[in-house]
Specification:
single chain; alpha+beta; Beta-Lactamase; five-stranded antiparallel sheet; 44% helix; 29% strand
Length: 119
C-alpha cells in the first residue's frame, strides 16, 4: 500500500479529520492527503515540524523519555503531531469537535508502518 493510500485510510478512519501529512526533517512533504488545499497542508506540516523540532530540543534536557505526540488546539481545529523516527513527522488536522485521542491512536499505528518502510 502506498503512503498516500495509508494517509487516506487514516484520515477517513478518524471522525472529524480533514487531512494528514508525512514530512521530513526539513519540512518537505513526503506525502499527504487532505480535503482542503494541498499547499495549505504542506505549510501546516512544515510549521508543525518546526514546533516538533524545537520541543524535542527542549524536552531532551529532562530525563522524561523521547517526545512522541503533541496536540495543538485552536479555536477551530486540533493539530496532532507525531514523530516517525528521528527524521520525520506526521501531522493530522481535525475539526475542533473531533476527539484528538482517536487521531493519536491512528497516527501511532501509521507511524509504525512508515518507520518500517523508511528505516
Amino acid at each position: 500500500m502506498s503512503f498516500k493510500e495509508i494517509l487516506k485510510e487514516l484520515v477517513e478512519s478518524v471522525p472529524g479529520a480533514s487531512g494528514a501529512i508525512l514530512a521530513d526533517w526539513e519540512g518537505e512533504a513526503v506525502e499527504q492527503y487532505c480535503y482542503f488545499d494541498e499547499f495549505e497542508m504542506k505549510v501546516i506540516g512544515a510549521h508543525k515540524g518546526i514546533i516538533l523540532s524545537q520541543l524535542r530540543e527542549l524536552h531532551a534536557r529532562y530525563p522524561l523519555g523521547e517526545l512522541q505526540d503533541i496536540v495543538i488546539t485552536t479555536e477551530e481545529q486540533h493539530h496532532v503531531i507525531h514523530t516517525v523516527g528521528p527524521d520525520y513527522v506526521l501531522v493530522m488536522t481535525m475539526k475542533r469537535a473531533a476527539l484528538p485521542a482517536r487521531a493519536v491512536q491512528g497516527l501511532r499505528r501509521v507511524a509504525h508502518l512508515f518507520a518500517k518502510e523508511i528505516y
